[in-house]
Amino acid sequence: MEGFLPWQWCAVWWIIAIPFLVIGVIELRAMMKKDREYLPLLGVCGAFIFILSALKLPSVTGSCSHPTGTGLSTTCFGVFITSIIGAIVLLFQSLVLAHGGLSVLGANMVSMAIGGPVAGYAVYRLLKNTKVNIYVIVFIVTAVADLVTYIITSLELALAYPAQTGGIAASFAAFFVIFAITQIPLAIVEGCVLALVFKYVIELKPEMIIKLKIFSEEQIAKARGASGFLPGEVKA
Amino acid sequence: MIKNRKLELITIVAILGFIMVFLSVSSNGIYEFAGSDNVGSEKIAELTGLSVDSFTPLIPQYEPPSGEIESTLFALQASIGGIMLGLVFGYWLGQRKVSQKS
I want to staple A13 with a disulfide (CB 3.0 to 4.6 A). Which of A34, A106, A117, A124 is the partner? Predict the structure, then answer.
């Protein structure tokens, strides 16, 4: 929403976003140098952010919004690399689509490419070593990353536009209804879709998930067992 | 080998449920299904007392001249993603096939 944030706030969000991008670039370069075989997985994660953030879906509240698709990348590569992919998508949208814009890019990055993934990653770390099924983890990570993105958007707008009565809290509530409530059904569907994609990644490239230490061999074996493969049956 | 397709089923059910909810919400015709961005813009206009049009980008930028062109560009974005996806999964499937043969 270009033009709707005063320049002071644009600057604040840019300043918050930049360190994440810098670390992201450093991490990305280190990863590329070490092993290029992760590149395809990065491609899949990026592809889904591209696809899902282009789909404006209708929701129960009678308005449309788009999912973010950052959950898969957050699970596989963490916050910083996700912030780079997210930033590329947002840049594309602000340059050719007038969806967002250069000055609010900082704010959009903080919500979609950073805030959502940070929350998702926190959930991932919390659930990683529990007995929860890994597909369920991906589902929750994705849904949380999506929802938090829009909660932060609401917060960004509320900070810039506090209501005359009730201040920031009141206008946060108003924006929350517009953005976050709309997002709930989308987040659920998105979570299912990305969990399914993760299942296919695991069926084809389980060794990559193990090597990146995303999930342990036992967790994957268990999940694959549940999806019809006997552990060891498809050892490439 | 019978594969367990539980996750696929859940996803299909979720998407169908989503479509059903959309159809029932849209059938009564009171909603316009505008983007939440636009709804948000109106809210800002309401809060500040300024009209939506008075907010202009701080940095001048390209704006698609019509909804048609905008939808093309969004489709382009999605197709870039789709191509990348097909490429990678195809690559992995091919890799698996080769490694199974040897």
Answer: A106
Per-residue confidence (pLDDT) for residue A140, from 0 to 100: 92
Q: Which pLDDT tens digit goes with each residue over A96-138?
A: 776 777 788 888 888 888 989 999 999 998 988 888 888 899 9
Q: A220 with A209: CB under 8 angstroms?
A: yes
- Cβ(B26)–Cβ(A59) below 8 Å: no
Residue B60, C-beta contacts closer than 8 angstroms, at least 6 positions apart: none
Strands A57-58 and A63-65, by their bridges, are antiparallel
Q: What pLDDT, in 10s, does the model give residues B39-56?
A: 777 777 777 777 676 676
Mutation to test the A interface, candidates B1, B4, B7, most A Cβ within 10 Å: B7
Residue of chain B minimizing CA distance to A64: B35
Predicted TM-score of the model (pTM): 0.84
| ipTM score | 0.79
Phi-psi bin for A132: left (phi > 0), alpha (psi -120 to 50), beta? Answer: beta
pLDDT band at A69; cut points 50, 70, 90 = confident
The pLDDT tens digits of the residues spanning A74-85 come to 988 889 999 999
B2-24 residues labelled b (16+ CB within 10 A) or e (exposed)? eeeeebeeebeebeeebeeebee
From CA B102, how far away is CA B99, in angstroms rounded? 5
CA distance B67 to chain A (A): 10
SS3 A132: coil
Task: For residue B66, report the phi and psi dihedrals to the nearest 5 degrees.
Answer: -145, 170
Strand partners, B35: A64
Is the C-alpha dihedral spanning B89, B90, B94, B95 positive or negative?
Answer: negative
Q: Find the helix or strand (DSSP H, E) in which A64 lies.
A: strand A63-65
CB contact under 8 Å between A50 and B80, yes or no, is: yes
